[in-house]
Design goal:
Elongation Factor Tu (Ef-tu), domain 3; transmembrane helix; alpha/beta; 449 residues; Rossmann fold; flavoprotein
């Protein structure tokens, strides 16, 4: 008989998170203070205020790029404290910040030179772009504009996940061009040996974290665990489960609700990677992912041969029972978002009163429903399958309807995963019902880069 592991007390579980958040906040404040100190110590540029503003914006731009690198480095400290989904949201907004700084920095620099020399802005821009360091910087700006343009929601919807991910690989080219540009054009961090060591030490730290988190650690882990496809099980016409086995899987310390970045060498190109949640509680023998065929990678999973190699990065995500603050739990799943919810429902640490809401268009779309019913029966959980098109009187996640289904919703931790529209509707209703934000846990899968 499997013993049920009760979650740690809230104070014990959240103390490391609070320390991590304080450390991250201190990192940002201290570095911004140092950047302003370097800017002041460097003195005003030889030309005018336009150039001075341009130089400060250049420092902001370089630091924003450092922050961006750290956000995509898969740092365990950040993942545990905030969750990869929230970090990816910050990555998106940091990307827009980088975009505007990349536009404004050269604009002010050109204005400064044009005003000082008394020539047109266009002629000044042409003269500066003839210099190789400046040209490399302008190429980086053009690539940033391309990446951000394809990340805008209207453009994003027209791209497959695989293509969108491939476009984000251009970020590494931007980093290289940006570093070369700083080597030749940087002045504020070349005041003395101390500022030089600080600035390039910051970049070494960021790039070291990136290489370690995105290359070295995954390579070492996959060499150790030797993941292989053990079984491929169709769950419906367009949904398939893949069972993965390997060595020493317990040392991965994966948790229900988490996800991996999956690659299938020989079946897909090396750059095709997808975030799929664990759809069953992980154990020392196997991992299971369940995916709907919406892209080239996920659609081809049913053709994976038994024994095929698997390359996985992770586990990632804070969508786990470690985040609970209450003994009662509400699990809300929409469509294929049922996968982490089903995993949480199986987790031995899940105790107390549990309610599950599973939203699908029709009963035929309710994949893993048999497993959900069996698990709910074993745990004494209440499972409600909500069907039909949303609209008119059928608004199951409207505040009044959600309260009718779960009258004590404010006294529960709420886990929600599903399509963006469903998740947003649930989050809005929870705010209107005054469910404390610390009790709300959402997985949105906005992963990029």
């Amino acid at each position: 008989m499997t013993a049920v592991t009760q979650p740690q007390p809230l104070a014990v579980r959240r103390y490391p998170d609070l320390l991590a958040r304080a450390a991250i906040g201190m990192f940002l404040v201290v570095n911004l203070a140092i950047i302003h100190l370097m800017f002041v110590s460097a003195g005003p540029p030889a030309y005018n205020a336009f150039g001075s503003v341009g130089r400060l914006l250049g420092l902001y731009l370089a630091f924003a790029m450092v922050v961006q690198v750290l956000l995509v480095a898969r740092l365990p400290l950040l993942d545990r404290a905030f969750g990869m989904d929230r970090l990816t949201g910050w990555h998106r907004w940091t990307g827009f910040t980088v975009f505007w700084l990349a536009v404004l920095h050269p604009s002010f620099v050109v204005l400064g030179f044009a005003s000082h020399d008394g020539v047109s802005v266009f002629r000044t821009a042409l003269t500066l772009s003839a210099q190789l360091p400046v040209l490399l910087g302008l190429v980086a700006v053009a690539l940033i504009m391309l990446i951000v343009g394809l990340s805008v929601r209207i453009a994003r919807r027209r791209l497959s996940y695989e293509m969108w991910h491939a476009v984000h690989l251009l970020l590494y080219v931007v980093l290289l061009l940006g570093i070369v540009h700083q080597l030749y054009e940087g002045t504020a961090f070349a005041i003395n040996l101390l500022t030089w060591l600080y600035w390039w030490g910051l970049w070494v730290f960021a790039l070291g974290a990136l290489i370690t988190g995105r290359l070295i650690v995954p390579l070492l882990r996959n060499n150790r665990h030797r993941l292989r496809v053990a079984a491929v099980v169709p769950e419906s016409d367009d949904v398939v489960s893949v069972h993965v086995t390997g060595r020493d899987l317990d040392s991965l310390r994966a948790r229900s609700g988490q996800f991996f970045l999956w690659r299938f060498p020989g079946h897909n190109r090396w750059w095709q990677v997808n975030p799929f949640s664990l759809s069953a509680a992980p154990n020392e023998r196997s991992l299971r992912l369940t995916a709907k065929g919406v892209g080239s990678t996920s659609a081809g999973l049913r053709d994976l041969p038994i024994g095929a190699r698997v390359f996985a990065e992770g586990p990632y995500g804070a969508f786990t029972l470690d985040r609970r603050t209450r003994t009662a739990t509400l699990l809300i799943a929409g469509g294929i978002g049922v996968t982490p919810i089903r995993s949480l429902l199986e987790d031995p640490a899940l105790g107390g009163d549990v309610v599950v809401l599973y939203r699908v268009r029709s009963g035929a779309d309710a994949v893993l429903l048999g497993e959900m019913r069996n698990l709910a029966r074993e745990r004494g959980a209440r499972l409600h399958v909500l069907t039909g098109r949303t609209g008119g009187a059928n608004q199951p996640f409207a505040p009044e309807n959600l309260r009718a289904l779960v009258p004590d919703v404010t006294d529960r931790d709420v886990y929600v995963c599903g399509p963006m529209a469903l998740t947003n509707a649930v989050l809005v209703s929870l705010r209107r019902l005054k469910v404390p934000s610390r009790q709300v846990h959402a997985e949105l899968f906005r992963l990029a880069g």
